[in-house]
Amino acid sequence: YFYTCAAGGVLACGLTHYAMTPLDMLKCRMQVNKNLYSGVFDGFKKVASAEGIKGLFTGGAPTLVGYSLQGLGKYGFYEYFKYLYAGAVGEEAAAKYKTLLYLSASASAELIADVMLCPMEALKVKMQTSSTPFATSFVGGLSKIHAAEGMSGFYKGLTPLWLRQIPYTMVKFATFEKTVEAIYKNILSKPKEEYGKVEQLAVTFSAGYFAGIFCAIVSHPADTLVSKLNNVAKAEGESTGALAVRILKDLGFAGVWTGLVPRIFMIGTLTGLQWFIYDSFKVATGLPTTGGAAAPKKE
Prior knowledge:
Blueprint: H1 2-19, H2 21-32, H3 40-56, H4 60-89, H5 91-96, H6 98-129, H7 138-149, H8 152-155, H9 158-187, H10 197-229, H11 240-255, H12 260-284
C-alpha cells in the first residue's frame, strides 16, 4: 500500500511541476528582480521571443527529478506516518483528532521529502534566475555547484525550504482531507461509497484546487526567500541565517509577497492536478480515493 502511494506521488509531483516549469521560472525571476517583467504574460512574451520555447522550460530537468523524489517522500511517508500515528494513539483518538493526525503526518513526511528535493531545487533556481546561462546541462550544473560550494551549496536553502514546504504541505493535506469530508457531508447527498470513481475524482480535483490556494498564501514569503538565497552571495564569514535576515530586511514586507498572483494560479492548478493524478493512480491499482472515508488498514 505504502509503495503504491509513493509511486503515485512520483507521478503526481514530478509531472505537474515539470508542466508548470514556465510559470515557475517567471515567478522565480520576478522574485529575484521584480522589475524584470511587468507581469506574467509580458514575461512569457519576452522569454519566448529571446530564448524560444526551450527557454520557457529552463530548469525543467532538475524540476522533474527533484519533485519526483519529493513526491515519493511526501505521499508515501504521509500515508505511512498517518498509519503509524493512528496506531500509536488508538482508533478512537485518531478518529477524534483527525485534523491533528493529518497535520502531524504531513509535517513528518515533508521533513524527509525536502531533504530529497533540496539539491535539485538549488540547481533549478540557479538555472532559472542566472542572468547568463548557468550551465549547459543538468550534470554540468550539479558539477558547477559542487565545485564552487561543495555539498553545502546543495543544502544552504534547506531551512527556508522546510519553512516553505512544511506549512505548505500541512495546509495541503489537512485542508484537502477536511474539504473532501465537507463536500460529501454538506454538498453531496450520498456517502462517498455510493458514487462512482469519476464523481469521486471530480471531488478530489475540486478539493485539491481549493487547498492549493491556501498553500500558496501560507508558504509564499519562504518561497521568495528560497529564490533569493540561491542567488545572493554571502559576505565573508556570513552564515546562511545572517544572509536570510539581510535579504528579508532588503525585501521588506511588500517584497516577500512579490510573485504571489502567478504562484496562486500555479499552486492551485498544481495541487488540484496532483491530487487528481495521485488518486487516479490509486484507483487504477485498485485502491480507494483519498479522504471522505476510513483510511485503509495495512494488510
